[in-house]
Inverse folding.
């Protein structure tokens, strides 16, 4: 069923079934059995290989905490704080470390730890979905600042992203758009993980759809 065909009063989880297990299992399957050299491989030969598999995974996990908790906090949880939410000190380590858009590598480095945080962040997303309907995902909006860093957002998210009529740098995301963004980010970086594996002569496991940002004209989908 297309998302546009799902009744408005249906559970929000029907819009994003990938958050149940697919996102976590896809990442976990790709890193299973990799050794330290394979996890840490980086190269300046391709734009997508500047971050290792380990760092791609860290970025994926960090982003869930940023978008599902750190930015809007209890605005996303009108019924109170759900289980699995990190305390303020850990939230900072997960979302505002000195490592570019990644978790604090001094604390979160081992692959099992990274996977645990990926699962935890996805769990927070599941908690949001459990309290919403299809209609509320499309009607609820969250304020954000846009200084031109993500011009491609407007080519993907359409009516789920609107600019404030009085303050040009203020934009509003629908809750559905926030989840679409997280889904597209996950599959984009999972595809990067696969390409880094291929660059090392390793086989890939998961089937990654070319959707969202990767489907934009000119997006680099090159492989070794």
């Amino acid at each position: 069923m297309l998302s546009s065909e799902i009744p408005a009063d249906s559970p929000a989880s029907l819009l994003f079934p990938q958050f149940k297990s697919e996102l976590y299992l896809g990442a976990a399957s790709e890193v299973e059995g990799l050794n330290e050299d394979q996890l840490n491989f980086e190269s300046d030969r391709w734009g997508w290989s500047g971050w290792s598999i380990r760092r791609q995974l860290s970025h994926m996990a960090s982003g869930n905490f940023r978008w599902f908790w750190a930015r809007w906090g209890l605005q996303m949880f009108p019924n109170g704080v759900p289980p699995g939410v990190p305390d303020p000190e850990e939230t900072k380590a997960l979302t505002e470390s000195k490592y570019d858009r990644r978790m604090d590598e001094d604390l979160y480095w081992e692959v099992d730890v990274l996977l645990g945080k990926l699962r935890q962040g996805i769990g927070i997303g599941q908690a949001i979905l459990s309290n919403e309907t299809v209609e509320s995902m499309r009607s609820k909006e969250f304020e954000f600042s846009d200084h031109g860093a993500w011009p491609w957002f407007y080519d993907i998210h359409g009516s789920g992203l609107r600019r404030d009529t009085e303050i040009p740098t203020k934009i509003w995301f629908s809750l559905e758009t926030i989840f679409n963004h997280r889904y597209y980010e996950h599959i984009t970086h999972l595809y990067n993980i696969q390409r880094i594996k291929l660059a090392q002569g390793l086989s890939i496991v998961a089937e990654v759809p070319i959707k969202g940002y990767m489907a934009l004209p000119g997006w680099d989908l090159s492989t070794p």
In short: The chain has a mean pLDDT of 95. The first strand starts at residue 141 and ends at 145. The chain is about 45% helix and 5% strand.
